[in-house]
């Protein structure tokens, strides 16, 4: 049985969505990021980088969300083509998410939501880059149902981030093809189940609604603690 070490973050959701889509049995181990559990020695043996998510598959540890997705896809033969060109198309868009969408949205979150002081040039910089990346996705999705043709791990990884656009202070509605794609993945039962893992995922869901100010404040405070902890590493 696969052990999933995770928390309610976009990177964490990537793996739980994939596990649900692939119908793999797994058990969830929630990592309390605000208490620094990810920095404890036992977890660093699984993930030397001290970040979630990570998995153990019969004692074999895999860390980094993109690497986990590729491992699971190759293990099951699902959501990653085996021909060189088809595989490359998926990997290109997966790397686009890993190197672009995730980091830029993460920085937008930090400066827009978590830093107590609002540094407007930084907010503008990262929100602007998120919009640019959304434009790239929108153009690709104008001619493709999914990012690399068929539904793949690249779609799972990217959707788990772009669905949180409002938390970064960016509206996704103007990107009509991206919005169509968002709705299509959100309608998948496995994706719906995946974003409920772990059991505290409701906190992010409330925050993303942007209607519960108290939920927003508490979620941002917890995230700020994690950001500050990361600065001390």
Automatic annotation (TrEMBL):
It comes from the Bacteria. It holds the Pfam family GST_N. Residues 83-219 form the GST C-terminal domain. GO terms for molecular function: transferase activity. The keyword Transferase applies. Keywords: Transferase. Gene3D superfamilies: 1.20.1050.10, Glutaredoxin. The keyword Mitochondrion does not apply. PROSITE patterns: GST_CTER, GST_NTER. Residues 1-80 form the GST N-terminal domain. Belongs to the GST superfamily. This is Glutathione S-transferase N-terminal domain-containing protein.
